[in-house]
Design brief:
Rossmann fold, 16 helices, six-stranded mixed sheet, about 450 residues, alpha/beta, glycerate kinase, domain 1
Length: about 450
């Protein structure tokens, strides 16, 4: 590998790390909370709350809870603070209950945790505060299906949606209509206590009703919308009967809809967005500027099929080169692509698939010069494996050819993990403790150009 390529790879990783650091959950919560003679202040909101119920759920739950506990005196806590997170981010906190549960598929541990949180919520009184610290992954980590739907049935439904190509908003629409906590359900259980949510967004556009399936905010979607999603992705006939019957009953008006914006329970509810993908994209951009790269922002809402997104980015890069690129350039995006899996598929994740697809697309479209492309999840996990994503370069296909691996065939089999592993192109960071969707960083070096 040339020295230029090695530098490009190191710079891409540094820009990614800057994006992850910008979403640090401890610092994000600490910035919002103060405790003084008047009591707890959350941003501009003050309240003389004598009893505070403190709970966190999501991939950043432990760090967010730790920050809140460092600010709020323990004598004001109405019960033991609780955090629910995934196994990779499990970190025990003194004087708190920390529970690990399943992600991306729910499990029995998550159900037990949801029941514990529900009991705490039901103990709330008028004049109390429920302070919720929410981060990405909360939907799967805290399953609390409605009566009549078993956890196994909810898991089966989630699994069908995850492999169907549905985006996160569509998946959450279905989840919300099968849950007692999602889609404003937590706010309903918290009433009559006051509620404030500090939210670290993993959803593009920061739609609060989509982050962790919107447990603390009004839900604009309906039972009919949930049924439409399942039909759109051809899984309606495959979902468990209990889920189908519940959704049909809701669409017929026989089950209560999720709480809407005019519901009285939201009168004492508030929220603050403390971190997002857009903030992390800006941090990656600034890191690239500091390394003297010319910046082109691809998108702050990169979506769609991973391999199609790879082709789009390749075409943009090629156009820049053809227009006469004169200096090292960074093309940066944030988003969350999808992968529609075939019946027979290998191992990988959307970021690994995007990286492998980019390497192939760059070769097919004739992307000249030296380049490096990174696509990774800010949570440090891309699908059911230990990689955050992939980092490929202009020599990736050559390395795979020497290893006698047909990259195109492996991509068609959705087998990106072992393929990138063979090229030494997996990006493995470990759990980061945060989650604000994905970052994509393409660094281009025109022919005969040096990195300054």
């Amino acid at each position: 590998m040339s020295q230029h390529l090695e530098t490009l790879r190191q710079d891409a990783i540094a820009c990614f790390q800057a994006g992850v650091a910008a979403a640090d959950p401890y610092a994000a919560v600490k910035r919002q909370l103060q405790f003084n003679d008047q009591g707890l202040q959350i941003g501009e909101r003050c309240g003389d709350w004598q009893r505070i119920h403190l709970m966190a759920f999501g991939k950043a739950a432990t760090a967010m809870l730790n920050a809140a506990m460092d600010v709020i005196p323990s004598r004001y806590l109405a019960s033991t603070p609780i955090a629910v997170t995934n196994d990779e981010n499990l970190c025990q906190l003194e004087n708190a209950l920390v529970i690990a549960s399943g992600h991306p598929l729910p499990d029995q541990r998550g159900l037990a945790a949801a029941e514990t949180i529900a009991q705490q919520l039901k103990s709330g009184q008028s004049g109390d505060l429920v302070l919720c610290l929410i981060s990405g992954g909360g939907s799967a980590l805290l399953p609390y299906p409605v009566a009549g739907i078993s956890l196994d049935d909810k898991i089966a439904t989630t699994q069908l949606l995850l492999s169907s190509g549905a985006n996160i908003n569509q998946i959450n629409c279905v989840r919300k209509h099968c849950s007692q906590l999602k889609g404003g359900g937590l706010a309903r259980l918290a009433a009559p206590a006051d509620l404030h949510a500090l939210i670290l967004s993993d959803v593009l556009g920061d739609d609060l009703s989509a982050i962790a399936s919107g447990p603390c905010v009004a839900d604009p979607s309906t039972f009919a919308d949930a049924i439409a999603v399942l039909n759109q992705y051809a899984v309606w006939d495959k979902i468990p009967t209990s889920v189908k019957q519940h959704l049909q009953a809701g669409a017929a008006g026989l089950q209560a809809e999720t709480p809407k914006a005019d519901a009285a329970i939201f009168a004492n509810c508030a929220h603050t967005l403390v971190g997002s993908n857009a903030i992390s994209v800006d941090a990656a951009v600034n890191a690239a500027k500091q390394k003297n790269y010319q910046i082109h922002l691809i998108s702050q809402a990169l979506t769609g099929e991973a391999r199609l997104a790879a082709e789009t980015i390749t075409k943009q890069a090629k156009q820049l080169l053809e227009n006469g690129l004169e200096q090292a350039t960074a093309l940066i995006a944030g988003g969350e692509t999808t992968v529609s899996l075939s019946k027979q598929h290998g191992q990988g994740g959307r970021n690994q698939e995007l990286a492998l697809a980019f390497a192939l697309s760059a070769d097919e479209l004739g992307l000249n010069g030296e380049w490096c492309f990174l696509s990774a999840g800010t949570d440090g996990r891309d699908g059911p494996n230990d990689a955050a994503g992939g980092i490929v370069d202009s020599q990736t296909l050559q390395r795979l050819k020497l290893a006698r691996i047909d990259a195109k065939h492996q991509l068609n089999q959705h087998n990106s993990y072992p393929t990138l592993q063979a090229a030494n192109d997996l990006l493995v960071t470990g759990a980061t403790g945060t989650n604000v969707a994905d970052l994509q960083i393409l660094l281009l070096l025109p022919n005969n150009q040096k990195i300054t």
